[in-house]
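Allow me, if you will, to draw on your knowledge of protein folds for a short while. The matter concerns a single protein, recorded as an amino acid sequence and a row of backbone structure tokens. Could you please explain, in whatever detail you think fit, how the structure tokens follow from the sequence? I remain grateful for any guidance, and I place the record below:

…
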Amino acid sequence: METINIGILGYGVVGAGVAKLLKLKKQLLISRIGAVLNLKAIADIDITTDRGVDLGTTTLVSDANVIIDDPKIDIIVETIGGETLARQFILKSLENKKHVITANKALLANFGNDLVKAAGKNQVDLAFEASCGGCMPIIKSLRESLVVNDIKSMSAILNGTCNYILTKISKDGSDFEDALKQAQELGYAEAEPSLDIDGFDTAHKLAILNSLAHGMEINLKDIHVEGIRNITPVDIEFAKDFGYTIKLLAIGKIHEDHVEARVHPTMISGSNPLSHVDESMNAIAIDADATGQIMLYGHGAGMMPTASAVLSDIADIARNIISGTKRRVPILGYPEDNIKSIPILPMAELYTRYYLRFEAQDHPGVLSKISGVLGENNISIKSVHQKGRKSNGKVPVVMITHLAKEAWVQRALKQISKTDSIVGDPVVIRIEEIVQE
């Protein structure tokens, strides 16, 4: 029986999970693949700490180049993370004609186009199922299962840290800092959580998914990104009053000559299945022309869910090796010559509905002033809600708009903020739903 040798770069949580599954599921993998998947070596700067995995004959080395330069190793699994060493190691592995698997979404979002070209030049595979959504098979679905579909839109919860925090604020009434602390204590959030809570981790994933969905170059820099730091229990309560839930969404939509791509807190109605995705879970809703709407749901992170996704890539490449094929499925779902540069819609050009909250002085005529400025900027108000007088004399005024252009809303808010009647910055949350207007 053919043996396929595998090397892992990085022996942290994900690397240990991959090693564990390769060892525990050895017989199952042999029966399903028809070859032995042999974990030949693991590289990590710390080779003394016990990760709780019985490695058997697997060699532990401190120098990644030992694995990259080993002519007997067929597949390299990169689990180091970061964008410097990981990039160098992946490029060298590709140049050495080795197939590479990575879960490194930040690296792919920033340098994926270069890595795809390097894989093409060397005629090897680059796989990354674990980079977006953990164990959810998003990559395979877009690249293979939905191959005959034009992808009209994608809406996704792709960061378990943010989803956990928003769930705690919504369900338990926690404030942001307390919810973040709970997420850190449970291991959902890093000690330095900016990448997650400021929306960048989600944007990395959306950049990759856009490319797979639309045959476009990976474009991270033009995606609009906002995080969840400013979401308060007050806004979540108002959202409930209007029948909405607040989630950090990655939204991608195809138009005739551009792609709409944005990450920000979003109000969605209770009829939207994503509104019921709570705690640290991830989900993506895809609207495609042939299939209609489909949804994937699962753990977006964690040792075993992520390792499972990595193993699915290992199995795909192993089957290619056994059958004497390679690069059977294009890395980004389209042959590289067919990948296009498709512009992303500038945020100022977006049309959607808005939740606007103002902290107003409790003076006569304040509401008419706000409404007047909105009207002067072509913004039509669907509903107004004023809830409870505060002891300091300020009252929250909440408005839901009809469809409006982002540029109009931002211009109006600047004008309203300059009036003496408004205290602090207005809160803006976009609403995502199909509206007949």
About this structure: The two ends are 64 Å apart (CA to CA). The chain has a mean pLDDT of 94. The chain is about 35% helix and 25% strand. The first helix runs from residue 13 to 24.
